[in-house]
Design goal:
The complex is a heterotetramer, with 2 copies of chain A and 2 copies of chain C. By secondary structure, chain A is an alpha/beta fold. Chain A has 5 helices and 13 strands. Chain A is about 15% helix and about 25% strand. Chain C is α/β, with parallel strands linked by helices. Chain C is built from 6 helices and 11 strands. Classes of the chains: A alpha/beta, C alpha/beta.
Amino acid sequence: MAWTRENMARRAAKELQDGYYVNLGIGIPTLVANFIPDGVSVTLQSENGMLAMGPFPAEDEVDADLINAGKQTITELDKSSYFSSADSFAMIRGGHIDLSILGAMQVSETGDLANWMIPGKMVKGMGGAMDLVAGVKKVVVIMDHNARDGSAKFLKNCTLPLTGVHVVDLIISDVGVFKITKEGATLIELAPDVTVEEVRERTEASFSVADNLL
Amino acid sequence: MAWTRENMARRAAKELQDGYYVNLGIGIPTLVANFIPDGVSVTLQSENGMLAMGPFPAEDEVDADLINAGKQTITELDKSSYFSSADSFAMIRGGHIDLSILGAMQVSETGDLANWMIPGKMVKGMGGAMDLVAGVKKVVVIMDHNARDGSAKFLKNCTLPLTGVHVVDLIISDVGVFKITKEGATLIELAPDVTVEEVRERTEASFSVADNLL
Amino acid sequence: MSKIYPNAAAALEGILFDGMTIMAGGFGLCGIPENLILALRGSGTKDITAISNNAGVDDFGLGYLLTTRQIKKMISSYVGENKEFERQYLAEELELEFNPQGTLAERIRAGGAGIPGFFTKTGVGTIIADGKEHKDFDGETYILETGLIADVSIVKAYKADTEGNLIYRKTARNFNPMMATAGKVTVIEAEEIVEVGTLDPDQIHTPGIYVQRIIQSVNLEKRIEQRTVRSEG
Amino acid sequence: MSKIYPNAAAALEGILFDGMTIMAGGFGLCGIPENLILALRGSGTKDITAISNNAGVDDFGLGYLLTTRQIKKMISSYVGENKEFERQYLAEELELEFNPQGTLAERIRAGGAGIPGFFTKTGVGTIIADGKEHKDFDGETYILETGLIADVSIVKAYKADTEGNLIYRKTARNFNPMMATAGKVTVIEAEEIVEVGTLDPDQIHTPGIYVQRIIQSVNLEKRIEQRTVRSEG
């Protein structure tokens, strides 16, 4: 039984450690905030210029001057601070954010990431993704293991334009979790009832398998 | 009759225009603030992180957290703002200051300035002088025309380590005023009873003389 | 010399020209200079190179200037919300330069700070690095990015005093402070204009030296793109 | 995980080592971390490379660490107030690297911002440019300066909340904010420590992410170098 989006977000939340400063990408990564373990206090950064994002506002708290990087209305906390985009990316580029969790179109077995552009099709832009993957200490990708047409997204080499090279440290997909280091990729966890064999079939990248899964 | 320090400061004040943002160096340049013409409003920047410096404090206003770049206690004005040294020099380096007035040990006929170091003798440092002369739109030097031993300070080439190359736009010395452009140096004003001939004798630099002084 | 102008059109008078470069503050539709964008549309200025993190939506913000075809080129990090933008771009009617958001922010900060170039890790190994100088520092590779300045910056502030000291509000700050430093002429629209002495000198976000012209914002829409609320109870 | 430590010595425990690089905030004697400097003296840490705009005076500020010979090298822009410094330097007992003040400030800001190098006009044609890469942008020559980081930054704030959000006061801000971003470990001494929620989120000078340890300043001298007053009447 493959993981749901919620399962993936819950698994990603285990990467959070007490005191971490974290940037969550748009989409599934945003859900991770709902599963922060008890006793773990993390501070969420939003790259449009805020540290310590609060939850979505109540109806009467909505403030057009207070949004996250996904342009959603949010709230502030007692410990919040605001700053310019230059200061925000100085924080990101300077390695002060502990963890970034974001989505992906493709990841290579050496940790290359493609998540911003499909040539000839989509003209949206990379936003802050290239800065985040270049600057944040640890980068975690949450993604469906395969594209809608069934093709592999975890590849030997990305075929789409890259967001960053050798930047992904961990992939959490619906079939399991892969750790990527300089030595290569390793499958370290499996979703319930998913077999190593099934993962191999659905993956183009080479990866080794952690002992406890064999 | 050569100009006094006060005369020189008064002459330098004529360079101030309404709305100017100005940085005044330590020493005689500081005096310029006393001679700002009526109807001219200028804002003084202090490179240690303040815009709109006020006068020295009254005895009971002295605040150790409020000093200028000469480490003197000062006051703030209604329009003042404080910022970091990085932001202060961003302002200077970015060409946002209209005018800087500072002292000099030597100036060359092409506008090179030496005002920070005598090799083997003085270990003080350049402070913000190199940034100011590189970044400020117009640089005015106030200096004694000759050193204490009578030697020339306005030279063909500076012999002391430089603060900046081609940076001085105007020299105000006790004998007169020199304008320096890409075309060379021109004597444009004389102190009372000082002759062109006397200036030539006391100067090593080549300079032309404005028509009205011939 | 008062910096206060009676309205947006007056504040832009004499500083606009065809082919000019304009920086416009804001992130999405948050903290955008609504009045000045409208006045820019009214001016008819053409062939604008617009530096702005986003391109507005079809019927608001910089989208106005796309509809009127006043913009020749955009330098942005993300334009996903604007269909007209995508149409013009795919039809090759519009030039587009994508910058990573942090690189864009830093290029503007550098432009205002007199820094013509800086090295960053962002974009190394991607198409962003194509044609750019690469250099290693301590065994890691970086690329050279250049500073950006604009002929005019249009900036949205929360409060301005009459000297041009500015304060921004919450995430409406975003790109506004850097753009204020990087315009040859910087024009501010503020929700409130106050007398000097009202703002705490320790709490000024943008010192008045960067500000040449100021207007009072009127009829602000402050449109929200993603109105998300939490369910009560 | 509380960031609050009981005193300066405790706040420096476990992060000091001989040969380390330390950034110390302040301009002259204004806004210096008095308590942390004393604790550093007490620690006996040797062969320190100290990055600080000035070197204190003979009997105060970083002058303490010169007297005890704990500093091997200074990176500063101006050290004119310190006779012991001059003596040690001329006797070649102390290494010295002069940086133009703005270059020093920007190098620290760059270090904290992940920028390993930037180009500046400052110092072109002077001995500061010797051996540095030169590059032309738009027909003007600039030199490459590099980012600076420190093993530990010691920083003086006016107010700190328990999350490490900081506010500085007047010109005591100076080099403190950039140094707070450029320390692998940043230790703050604050005149006042307040609960979170006390400081306005729009008015934080240094966000808490940059701050690892905080102490309450005690017995501040706040010595004044040039006490200048205006004559009354």
